[in-house]
């Protein structure tokens, strides 16, 4: 692995900013491991990697939001420290965040110059005429024609992004970091952004650009750095590499792959059928089928619509058109109907959505099954206890007793309680959203063993995961989402990380 | 997400109809059923009686814009009014009385801001606590009795006129002008918008949201101190329950005026119209001889109607 790649245009310019040996660890994860990164003046540097590869962490270290545990920064060859966002600002580093840093009910000019307003004659006041003129001039230089006295809240996403960029430029930013800037833009808006990037480049501004779209990587990038597992895999130039080669650099994470799975010889009857589902949450024309005995993967990048599909099936989000057939009968409406019919949604944030953390294991296990267990409406503590104890044994939940507070259990055991809760309620289809997030390796295997047992007994599972290795090892089949649509279907034999990434990105 | 950004509320002028319709409807209603409501003397009376509420509701607007709340305002007003009465009685000086009221009010406001910003106590709880403290102190300093015999210089503030305009109305207008300039034409005003709209943006601009937040609450307390002078002048005495429930009217006026409780979306002129709406409602109900208990309930209805309209607007 070479730490340096020649700068664009073959001129031997010195890097504007250089990061050497950056490491950053969080409890249980090494987010960045000895990453080096050089940014040359006036270049667009693409940062590429799967979900969780370390792109965001690197970006946050760059802008001072995270402090690196180890490593050095050099600006124009001089050693500098970036210990705070103020330090980064002084070096001319500005980040265009996906969630904007704008104040919704101030106008464009006030947003651009927030904290640096031109002073009026009376102390404390703002020179209104000057702030508008300054803003107008700035907006003109980036080619954004708009009245700077318009309240930001009335702007569309693309326009707000332009204001963000104007704000960064007004702070004399020499380095702009953009995190998936086109994610929320239309084609036309994207064109405008690309034109602006070209202009900024010509002015010598360097841009770090995080993208998941292959077309952009090749259209805009002067250089590409690929991250995987918090490590820098390689730095290449677009001309020297093919999309396939990039995909191969991104995949191949080293993970413990001892997940137990007993694949059925032939799949059971169809349990869930989604036909032409379109929903206002941003998914369209979804066709999905899940059979008894199957674990079906639902993958794609974060934001590709995976969670929205799950929520639509569960009735948590409204549906515009299409059909969802469950267990032979159409289903539509509210989560409580879906739950009664036997669909379980186990959300990613199980702490906020799946469990009452301060209540006992037993209470949590029976809460969804109260109607089934006690049809008369009268609660029977002993019946409840029996059910809870049975589930604790069946799912091997490690808890001293059913009376233990759920919040005190480990992540893996909390996850089991959520599963048990739905099992007690008679769920047949389990929809998991990132089931192994925040769970240690040992507990992961146990969770998968449990899911394996559930489907072997005739249930089915739809599993959303960003951990492609897990999908590949556990699932019978998988659907890959991209920008709100099903981009492709992978059978057991086709199910490889490379194929998932290929379908998930803008690259067939 | 994208749709939400595009279908956003347009300029603040679009909010005029909401509160203006409420106020217009109240005026038409009481003009029709309440004898003497439309007489110049009564209308002037409505405005004079709205002065104290104006002085509380304007800073309350700023506090609510920061996604906060100040429940202690009424109780702090009671306390400052008593301080004005006691000090002016002892020193025969209106200005020293005002100074005492402002000092006590500013102290309470600063404590509120400190509890919210530094200790991170939710505004509802923090200011509920100081409400109790102010109430208790009021009973202690007054011994549960009215403070009477205050100097004429204090009383005259409420009854005097300036070029034919009652002084309280002049004070209300000056207060409004001050807050308008503060919110829309100063750096501090911009930062108030940012406190509720995007605190990160402030931090990123190198400003201290905590200090700004304390300043906003301190401003509220200070205004309650100045309003204490007017309250003492109006009642010609200090009374241990003088400001009871005024925070409720102030919050109601802000809500009726279209200030949202989220994202720093505030509107001062709306608050002023909201204050007048509350004043008209109470005055009109008085004229048709409905008991004060009904008045409290009716202000409650006004708030619910206003928040319902607010909800309709944000959904539209």
Structural class category of chain A: alpha/beta
User: In the CATH hierarchy, what is the superfamily of the largest domain in chain A?
Assistant: P-loop containing nucleotide triphosphate hydrolases
Level-2 CATH architecture of chain B: Orthogonal Bundle
Mean pLDDT of chain B: 88
Shape of chain B: globular
Major sheet of chain A:
6 strands, mixed
- What is the N-to-C succession of helices and strands of chain B? HHHHHHHEEHHHHHHH
Give the overall shape of chain A.
globular
- End-to-end distance of chain B: 15 Å
Helix content of chain B: over 70%
SS element count, helices of chain A: 18
Number of structural domains of chain B: 1
Oligomeric nature of the chains: heterodimer
Low-confidence stretches of chain B: 1-13
Q: Which ranges of chain A are low-confidence, i.e. pLDDT below 50, for 5 or more consecutive residues? A: 1-11
Count of helical segments of chain B? 14
Subcellular location (chain B): Cell membrane
Protein name (chain B): ABC transporter permease
Pfam families (chain B): BPD_transp_2
Transmembrane segments (chain B): 16-34, 46-65, 95-115, 121-141, 162-183, 212-231, 294-312
């Amino acid at each position: 692995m070479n730490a340096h790649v020649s700068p664009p245009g073959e001129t031997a310019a010195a890097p504007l900013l250089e990061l050497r040996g950056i490491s950053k660890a969080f409890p249980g994860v090494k987010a960045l491991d000895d990453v080096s990164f050089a940014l040359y003046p006036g270049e667009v540097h693409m940062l590429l990697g799967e979900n969780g590869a370390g792109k965001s962490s690197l970006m946050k270290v760059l802008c001072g939001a995270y402090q690196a545990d180890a490593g050095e920064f050099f600006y124009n060859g001089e050693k500098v420290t970036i210990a705070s966002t103020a330090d980064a600002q002084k070096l001319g580093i500005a980040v265009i965040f996906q969630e904007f840093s704008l104040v919704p009910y101030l106008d464009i000019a006030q947003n651009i110059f927030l904290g640096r307003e031109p002073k009026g004659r009376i102390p404390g006041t703002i020179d209104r005429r000057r702030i508008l003129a300054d803003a107008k001039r700035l907006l003109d230089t980036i080619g954004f024609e708009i009245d700077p006295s318009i309240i930001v809240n009335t702007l569309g996403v693309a326009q707000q992004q332009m204001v963000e960029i104007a704000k960064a430029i007004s702070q004399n930013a020499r380095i702009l970091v953009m995190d998936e800037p086109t994610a929320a833009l239309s084609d036309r808006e994207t064109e405008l952004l690309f034109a602006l990037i070209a202009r900024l480049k010509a002015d010598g501004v360097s841009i770090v650009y995080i993208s998941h779209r292959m077309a952009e990587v090749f259209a805009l990038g002067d250089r590409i750095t690929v991250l995987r597992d918090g490590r820098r895999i390689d730095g290449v130039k677009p001309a020297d590499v093919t999309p396939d080669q990039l995909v191969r650099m991104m995949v191949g994470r080293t993970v413990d792959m001892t997940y137990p799975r007993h694949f059925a010889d032939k799949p059971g009857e169809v349990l869930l059928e989604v036909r032409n589902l379109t929903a206002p949450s941003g998914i369209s024309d979804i066709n999905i089928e899940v059979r008894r005995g199957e674990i079906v993967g639902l993958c794609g990048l974060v934001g590709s619509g995976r969670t929205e599909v799950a929520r639509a099936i569960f009735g948590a989000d409204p549906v515009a058109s299409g059909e969802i057939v469950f267990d032979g009968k159409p289903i539509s409406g509210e989560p409580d109907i879906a739950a009664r019919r036997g669909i379980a949604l186990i959300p990613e944030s199980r702490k906020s959505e799946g469990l009452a953390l301060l209540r006992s294991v037993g209470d949590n296990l029976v809460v969804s099954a109260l109607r089934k267990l006690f049809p008369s409406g009268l609660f029977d503590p002993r019946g409840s206890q029996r059910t809870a104890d049975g589930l604790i044994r069946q799912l091997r939940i490690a808890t001293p007793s059913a009376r233990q507070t759920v919040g005190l259990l480990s992540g893996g055991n909390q996850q089991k309680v959520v599963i048990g809760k739905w099992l007690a309620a008679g769920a047949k289809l389990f929809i998991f959203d990132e089931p192994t997030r925040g769970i240690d390796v040992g507990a992961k295997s146990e969770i998968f063993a449990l899911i394996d047992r559930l489907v072997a007994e005739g249930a089915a599972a739809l599993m959303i995961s960003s951990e492609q290795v897990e999908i590949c090892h556990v699932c019978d089949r998988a659907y890959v989402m991209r920008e709100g649509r099903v981009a492709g279907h992978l059978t057991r034999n086709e199910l490889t990380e490379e194929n998932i990434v290929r379908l998930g990105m803008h690259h067939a | 997400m994208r749709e939400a950004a595009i279908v956003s509320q347009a300029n603040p002028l679009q909010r005029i109809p909401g509160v203006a319709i409420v106020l217009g409807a109240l005026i038409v209603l009481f003009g029709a059923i309440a004898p003497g409501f439309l007489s110049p003397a009564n209308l002037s009376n409505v405005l004079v009686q709205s002065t104290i509420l104006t002085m509380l509701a304007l800073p309350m607007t700023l506090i609510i814009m920061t996604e906060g709340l100040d429940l202690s305002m009424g109780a702090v007003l009671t306390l400052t009014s008593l301080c004005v009465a006691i000090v002016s009685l002892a020193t025969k000086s209106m200005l020293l009385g005002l100074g005492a009221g402002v000092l006590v009010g500013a102290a309470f406001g600063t404590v509120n801001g400190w509890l919210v910003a530094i200790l991170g106590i939710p505004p509802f709880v923090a200011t509920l606590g100081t409400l109790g403290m102010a109430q208790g102190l009021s009973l202690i300093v007054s011994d549960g009795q009215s403070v009477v015999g205050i100097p004429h210089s204090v009383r005259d503030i409420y009854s005097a006129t300036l070029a034919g305009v009652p002084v309280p109305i002049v004070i209300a207008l000056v207060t409004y002008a001050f807050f308008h300039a503060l919110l829309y034409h100063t750096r501090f005003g911009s930062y108030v918008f940012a406190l509720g709209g995007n605190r990160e943006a402030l931090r990123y601009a190198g400003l201290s949201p905590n200090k700004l937040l304390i300043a906003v609450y301190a401003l509220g307390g200070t205004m309650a101190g100045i309003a204490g002078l007017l309250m003492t002048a109006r009642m010609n005495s200090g009374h241990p329950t003088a400001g009871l429930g005024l925070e409720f009217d102030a919050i109601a006026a802000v809500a009726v005026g279209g200030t949202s409780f989220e994202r720093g979306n505030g509107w001062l002129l709306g608050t002023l119209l909201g204050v007048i709406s509350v004043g008209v409602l109470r005055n009109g109900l008085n004229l048709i001889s409905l008991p004060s208990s009904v008045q409290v309930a009716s202000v409650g209805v006004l708030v619910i109607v206003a928040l319902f309209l607010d909800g309709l607007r944000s959904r539209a």
